[in-house]
Structure to design on (145 residues):
């Protein structure tokens, strides 16, 4: 397996849209993402998208944000989305994406990284735990739109 992990750049919008749509579809949902939204996201300070590619084909994505954290008086990282194409799961792609994201967040001075996943997504939970993330808080949300 020769997987390359790289930062998404202008021109990658269709790849990002396709991977995020795959994530939504795997949950039985739809997603309003557009290429224009991806362009805006990539230009927003602190927002990052890593792409996993094999032989020039995008097979996975991890998005994360770095933001200032008042309590820690330092930067904090938030893993937002991670998806690997169904056909490429179980090959270490998610682990490679997560390792690279954690490395980049540490290099950026993050003192804490957090992620949420659905309670029934045991595979994702195992992956995150295998990289040192532990259950530390309860995550609550509401949808405003």
């Amino acid at each position: 397996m020769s997987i390359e992990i790289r930062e998404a750049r202008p021109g990658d919008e269709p790849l990002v849209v396709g991977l995020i749509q795959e994530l939504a579809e795997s949950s039985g949902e739809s997603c309003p993402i557009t290429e224009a939204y991806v362009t805006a996201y990539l230009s927003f300070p602190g927002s990052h998208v890593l792409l996993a590619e094999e032989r020039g084909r995008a097979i996975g994505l991890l998005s994360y944000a770095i933001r200032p954290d008042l309590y820690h008086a330092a930067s904090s990282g938030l893993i937002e989305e991670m998806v690997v194409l169904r056909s490429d799961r179980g090959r270490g792609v998610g682990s490679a994406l997560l390792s690279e994201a954690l490395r980049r967040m540490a290099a950026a001075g993050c003192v804490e990284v957090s992620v949420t996943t659905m309670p029934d997504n045991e595979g994702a939970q195992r992956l995150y735990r295998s990289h040192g993330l532990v259950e530390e808080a309860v995550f609550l949300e509401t949808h405003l739109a």
Q: What stands out?
A: The domain at 3-130 is CATH 3.40.630.30 (Aminopeptidase). The CA atoms of residues 25 and 31 lie 8 Å apart. The chain has one domain: 3-130.
